[in-house]
Amino acid sequence: MSQTYLLKGDVARPGRIAVEKGTTLRQIVEELGGGMANGKAFKAMQIGGASGGLVTADQLDLPLDFKTLAPWGCRRGDGVITVLDEDRCMVDVTYSFLRATQADFCGKCVSCREGTKRMAELCGDLLEYRSNDADTGMMLELGEVVHMTAFCALGKGSASTMNIASIAFADDFQNHLDGHCPLCEKEKRLPIAPGDGVAYDRKHVVIDPNKCKGCSRCARSCHAEAISGVLKSPFSIDQSKCVKCYTCMELCAFGAIEEVVDDE
Ligand code: SF4
Ligand code: SF4
Ligand code: SF4
User: What pairing do the DSSP bridges indicate for beta strands 80-85 and 3-9?
Assistant: First the structure.
């Protein structure tokens, strides 16, 4: 059974892709995405949007499997895969994804709402060369606090991209602390635009009663207690409680949970 993703960023052929089980990240870039655009080299791949994570060239031969990719914070999340080339500054990329939390997350809990806002502000300062070691340390510590205290997988994953980027691409972060980033100064490029461009309130996570086997796995995993049902009968999601963290969608072994988007 294949799963659909939106492939974005610096590939030759961005767009909707169907990914079969076992497909490697390299195959996604080189075959489904038509390779890197403009002959540039691969730098990193962000998987799952604002609550997802980041992999580098060292992980390209791993499959797109979220148990395998969990150490890099990757999850299905919003179903968007963003490929980044060698000329992308990872402070700029991190800032784009932290800013996306402000539009993509529900804002119900204080830790995530205020924490992601402050992380985005601190990263914006770093991007503009207005930050020092202490500010950057605070940004990373805040990410740990939000990870530990946020209610759902969206908040818990909000710092994953930043954490991996700050370690794997420490030079980019140091350049912004030193006040001079050759990548940001090299050429004017449009910043990476995370997400699928669909507003949060137009998205709904729903269960297809024809596919649901009533196993209850989704209900047991939902922190928002939004899923209910009777064993061996179709379960359903209370839209007033769902925070659209996509955890249930990642767990259902029968592909019964999907995202639907309201017409504009
Ligand atoms: S419920 Fe989830 S997305 Fe909403 S504010 Fe809390 S952690 Fe963030
Ligand atoms: S995990 Fe899938 S099959 Fe099981 S109850 Fe939930 S939707 Fe139905
Ligand atoms: S129903 Fe699914 S998407 Fe909604 S809050 Fe629960 S686990 Fe997350």
Answer: parallel
Q: Whose structure tokens read 């420490």?
A: 170
State pLDDT tens for residues 140-183: 999 999 999 999 999 999 999 999 999 999 999 999 999 999 99
Give yes or no: residues 79 and 95 share one domain.
Answer: no
Residues 255, 259: Cα–Cα separation, whole Å: 11
CB atoms within 10 A of CB 215: 17
Closest CA to 2 of 62, 69, 64: 64
Torsion of Cα atoms, 13 then 19 then 23 then 26, to 10°: 20
Range of the domain at 256: 200-261
Residue 32: inside a domain: yes
Any ligand 3 atom below 6 A from CB of 252:
no
The domain spanning residue 209 has which CATH number? 3.30.70.20
pTM: 0.93
Q: Which atom of ligand 3 is nearest to the CA of 245?
A: 8
- Ligand 1 centroid from CA 196, angstroms: 19
Q: How far is the CA of 245 from the centre of ligand 3 (A)?
A: 5
Residue 219 Cα to ligand 1 middle (Å): 18
How many Cβ atoms from other residues are within 10 Å of residue 189's Cβ?
14
- Three-state DSSP at 206 gives strand
